[in-house]
Amino acid sequence: MKDITSLGLLHQIIRYVLVSIGYWGIFKKCGVKPYYSWIPLVREYHIGLCANKEKEARTYTIIAVFSEVMGLINNLSQSDSPIFLILAVVTLSLQIALVVYMIRIYLGLIEIFNQKKRWLLGFIFIESITTLIWGFSSKFVPGRQVSDQNAREGVKVSGTEAPVIESGLTVNITERKVVDFFKKKVLLKDIHMNIPRGHMVLLLGGSGAGKTTYLNAVTGYEKADAVVKLDGQDIYTDYAKMKYDVGFVPQQDLMRGNDTVALTLTDAASLRLPSSVSFFKKKKRVNEVLEEFGLATVRNSLVEKLSGGQRKRLSIAMEYISDPTLFILDEPDSGLDGVVARGLFEKLRAIADQGKIVIVITHTPDRVIDLFDDVIVLAKDASRTGRLAWYGPVDEAREFFGKDTMEGILLSINQKDEGGEGKADEFVEKYTDKCQKEAG
To answer: 312 Cβ partners below 8 Å, 6+ apart?
Structure first.
């Protein structure tokens, strides 16, 4: 019995080695790093990339992980247990799914190599021999390479940095990247700016341009390869101290409907103010904010009884309780009519006029654009990386893009497959040249 088991294990090892060698050759032909062929799961994902079946490869990898976990649990369970049968059925289902997805991947590979579909039988029944033939025979040449997907380089970088200002926000983001299924993906690159105190700034950009990533990088929620300073202090290195000076209001509020307005703000004060602040000072701050946001008359009302505008103001007041210097809001006017939204933005303008920095994302910028000082325009370049296409005064942005409205600017930088004009690269490069000229 042991001899049979040993032979089976030896057969599996030999098969794995031969397939890995075959994949090595295929990967070299397709522009994938060959050493991936020796790494379990990673190699299957990359053969999917060679087959132009990235979606199927992701699914295969995820199912394979679950299959391995279920198999391990199944081996540890008692064979006479009812759970054993359930686990066995689930494991078998996952194995069948793996076969289905691998067939899809191999069919894609056959198409990329412009071969006949009968080769699928070779991949199924004699995979080791078939992969060796495909990997090392000169007759098998792919019609495209994986590198073709990323062949388009992004627009050139400026090579400049924004000088640190002592009164305001300095942002120097070199790069923000993540590893997405064994691949490095750059989300943001080459973003540099100074935002003085007292400025209210619109953050404009299409879907996937990196607006949320930019805000997370600026606040320190998701650190980038960057230096971000507020009034000369580093938000990243001094985060424990600086977090009270940065307020972020998300699109969706997190308030309990059965709490009163006053209790909601009191709880926010306990969370947002340093523990060194006394109870009486916190209570005083709560009363000040209630008055400032026009909520004093409804202080004893339940949150669920508030109007849409009152609820938005309370959501903003919760973050403003710490009196932050940098105040960021993600679509604060969502769900509000024009009159109520206008009143809300006028309040934000008043906050900026107190010497604060207010950065806002809104999907209806043109109805309140007169209240903003500057606009940040983010756009996806050729490599699908978020880049800075403009930062500066609103009127100058209109002239730079040749558009009368913010929606027109957005339309010009959006990709053509998103209904835009597809001029992101043009304006990113134009702005990069402008920065280089000003720095030189």
So the answer is: 253, 332, 333, 336, 340, 344
Handedness of CA 381, 387, 393, 394 (dihedral sign): positive
Shared domain for 122 and 192, answered yes or no, is: no
Boundaries of domain holding 42: 2-148
What is the Cα–Cα distance from 45 to 59, expressed in whole angstroms? Answer: 9
Alpha helices in 31-126 (DSSP H): 42-50, 54-76, 82-112, 119-125
- The conformation of residue 260, written as its DSSP 8-state character, comes to B
Q: Which residues of 262-299 are buried (b: 16+ CB within 10 A; e: fewer)?
A: bbbbbbbbeebbeeebeeeebeebbeebbebbebeebb
Per-residue pLDDT reduced to its tens digit, 70-81 = 777 777 665 666
Please report whether residue 343 resides in a domain: yes
Same domain, 142 and 181: no
Residues 6+ apart with CB under 8 A from 211: 203, 205, 361, 378
Is 0.85 topped by the overall pTM? no
42 exposed, middle or buried (CB, 10 Å; 0-12, 13-18, 19+)?
A: middle
